[in-house]
Write a structure and sequence with these properties.
Layout: H1 2-22, H2 28-42, E1 47-49, H3 57-69, E2 77-79, H4 87-98, E3 107-109, H5 116-128, H6 135-140, H7 146-150, E4 180-182, H8 189-201, E5 210-212, H9 220-230, E6 240-242, H10 249-261, E7 270-272, H11 279-290, E8 300-302, H12 310-322, E9 330-332, H13 339-349, E10 360-362, H14 369-381, E11 390-392, H15 400-411, E12 420-422, H16 429-442, E13 450-452, H17 461-474, E14 481-483, H18 491-503, H19 513-522, H20 526-545, H21 557-560
Parallel strand pairs: 1-2, 2-3, 3-4, 4-5, 5-6, 6-7, 7-8, 8-9, 9-10, 10-11, 11-12, 12-13, 13-14
Helix pairs in contact: 1-2, 1-3, 2-3, 3-4, 4-5, 5-8, 8-9, 9-10, 10-11, 11-12, 12-13, 13-14, 14-15, 15-16, 16-17
Biased composition (Basic residues): 531-542
GO biological process, one term: nuclear export
Biased composition (Polar residues): 566-584
Length: 584
């Protein structure tokens, strides 16, 4: 396996070099020689991962023409994201698919290029077996063709031949094993998704499991076409669908809801609909579709940033309350407008005990208030949310009573698996922080890695800071990183920093490594941290020269920084999705 991986990496570097040369203006003889070398290299690999190489449209067109000219029966993954691919490049790749040379392909990654509507149409034609010849690739390697390779005796006989009259492989599937298609960030629009939907509806990608169309400017018409494909029965293997940041509005949501309710998506496990402008009407339609019980395998429901208000939250609460999606593990309702009433109804749904598999609950930015947290506390006391690993409650106007309910559950051991707790930008006061610090001190949440309390201070900050410091000085085994706006005049924090400054090292501090970094960065002692690292580095070198094993240095601020935000704006794969099996 190791030897195979090394060979794959070496071959990838060679392929990249060849494509960059083929993408330039070359004489015919040079182009033919390079093309022949590329054909030889392509026979060695099962994976071509050229993501983020910026090879350009001409280089990718040369790759597509090489793939057209010779079957690559072992190739399972083709990753070409972020390569500035335009019409010619995608047409060449589509042509290779269309002539049946990529029958083993399982993953096709074309996100963050310039494919557009025309490129998506070419790709859809490729799935259907319609041949497409790119002009640029033809100019680069004009003396090599599919017909030339078709005369070779070693060509596989089971690839199928294009129908001469219709130019379509009617009975032959060009990509029978293709399970993952990434097309995010390509601005394919309604026209592109309609063409793609036609191929999917006709069953030309029979093994599709993951489809990502994030940020493609898909409107209601495109969503309607895709919904028809979803309810056709030819996408029954679909497990994850990412349609985030497409403005298909409530009208598109209703089309999607009909597809969910059709019963033709039995394998669907993850549905990403963040920032689709669906509003209350769209959320209600989605909720009613889920209530039909036709998507019982759903594990991930992402409705972040859709302006869903109280009525929408109440409909979603009914679905949870009645247990229509019993396998649900992730619920993301960040940045909606539930208000106190909508949040309370939703949290009361957890008391029914029909969400026991929940691992990730994100309610940031909904102003749910204390009453909602207290309702959640009841579910926690009954161990109905014992599986929670991440709980996001930032920007929710939560005060002492709400935090007290959470702390009570922590102290009683009702959240044994909790790893991340966010209470940023609430109204905690010092009493709330002291209560949380006491839970940390007692180490009742042994798996907790992050506790975020940014912009959530009030009351006596000195006491709150003292309590947090005490939690670490009294519990050496504590590994939780606390993110807190430490007051500049905090006596406890200043005393610890002064101790570190006088001694020239942080070894005397009874704090874990992560906390040392937090103190230095949060209190603005970046220069002190740098000076401390410098002193330790010199001391380590001196000890190394004396034959003594050197100790570890103080971590950089990178190691103690806050975890990345819940939703990443630079990728089509939401951060929560990477925790599960859909990041193929």
């Amino acid at each position: 396996m190791v030897a195979q991986a090394v060979m794959e990496r070496t071959t990838t570097r060679i392929i990249v070099d060849l494509l960059r040369k083929l993408g330039a203006d070359l004489e015919d003889t040079q182009a033919k020689n390079l093309h022949q070398s590329l054909l030889d290299e392509l026979q060695k690999v099962t994976i071509i991962d050229l993501g983020r190489r910026r090879i350009g449209d001409r280089g990718i067109a040369a790759l597509g023409k090489a793939l057209q000219d010779c079957p690559v029966p072992r190739l399972e993954k083709l990753s070409l994201d972020s390569n500035d691919i335009g019409d010619d490049g995608v047409a060449a790749i589509a042509g290779a698919i269309g002539v049946g040379n990529l029958t083993a392909l399982r993953t096709l990654h074309l996100s963050w290029n310039k494919i557009g509507e025309q490129g998506c149409r070419a790709l859809a034609n490729g799935f259907q077996g319609i041949k497409s010849t790119p002009t640029v690739a033809q100019a680069v390697v004009k003396n090599f063709s599919f017909e030339f390779w078709n005369k070779k005796k070693n060509k596989s006989k089971n690839l199928g031949e294009p129908n001469e009259k219709s130019n379509v492989n009617n009975g032959f599937r060009c990509v029978p094993h293709l399970s993952t298609v990434w097309l995010s960030g390509n601005n394919i629009g309604d026209g592109g998704v309609k063409a793609l939907a036609t191929s999917l509806e006709a069953g030309h990608v029979p093994s599709l499991k993951v489809l990502r169309l994030f940020k493609n400017n898909i409107g209601p018409e495109g969503m309607e076409a895709l919904a028809k494909a979803l309810e056709s029965g030819n996408m029954a293997t679909l497990e994850a669908l990412n349609l985030g940041q497409n403005p298909f509005t409530p009208k598109g949501s209703k089309s999607l809801a009909e597809a969910l309710q059709s019963g033709h998506l039995p394998s669907l496990e993850a549905l990403y609909l963040h920032r689709n402008e669906i509003g209350n009407d769209g959320a209600i339609a989605i909720a009613q579709a889920l209530a039909s019980g036709k998507v019982k395998n759903l594990k991930v429901l992402d409705l972040e940033g859709n302006n869903i208000r109280e009525e929408g939250f109440k409909e979603l609460a009914k679905v949870l309350q009645l247990g229509h999606i019993p396998k649900l593990e992730i619920v993301d309702l960040v940045d909606n407008q539930s208000g106190a009433e909508g949040g309370h109804v939703l949290c009361e749904a957890f008391v029914t005990g029909n969400c026991t598999k929940l691992k990730w609950l994100a309610l940031d930015g909904n102003s749910i208030g204390d009453e909602s947290c207290m309702a959640m506390g009841k579910a926690l006391e009954l161990d109905y949310l014992a599986g929670l690993e991440r709980l996001y409650l930032a920007r929710n106007a939560i005060g002492f009573k709400g935090v007290a309910a959470i702390v009570k559950a922590l102290e009683a051991g009702h959240l044994p698996n909790l790893k991340y707790l966010s209470l940023d930008e609430n109204k905690l006061e010092h009493r709330s922080t002291i209560a949380l610090a006491a839970a940390l001190k007692a180490n009742v949440v042994p798996n907790l890695q992050y506790l975020s309390l940014k912009k959530s201070f009030g009351g006596d900050q000195e006491k709150a800071a003292d309590a947090l410091v005490a939690a670490y000085t009294k519990n050496r085994d504590l590994k939780t990183q606390v993110h807190y706006d430490w007051p500049n005049n905090s006596y406890a924090a200043k005393a610890k920093i002064l101790q570190a400054r006088n001694s020239g090292t942080t070894d005397e501090l009874d704090l874990p490594v992560a906390m040392k970094s937090c103190f230095c960065t949060s209190l603005g002692f970046g220069a002190l941290a740098k000076r401390t690292r410098s002193k330790r580095s010199k001391r380590s070198k001196r000890r190394a020269g004396e034959g003594v094993i050197s100790g570890s240095t103080l971590p950089s601020t990178e190691e103690g920084r806050r975890e990345p935000s819940f939703k990443s704006s630079t990728t089509d794969v939401p951060s929560m999705e990477r925790q599960f099996s859909f990041s193929t």
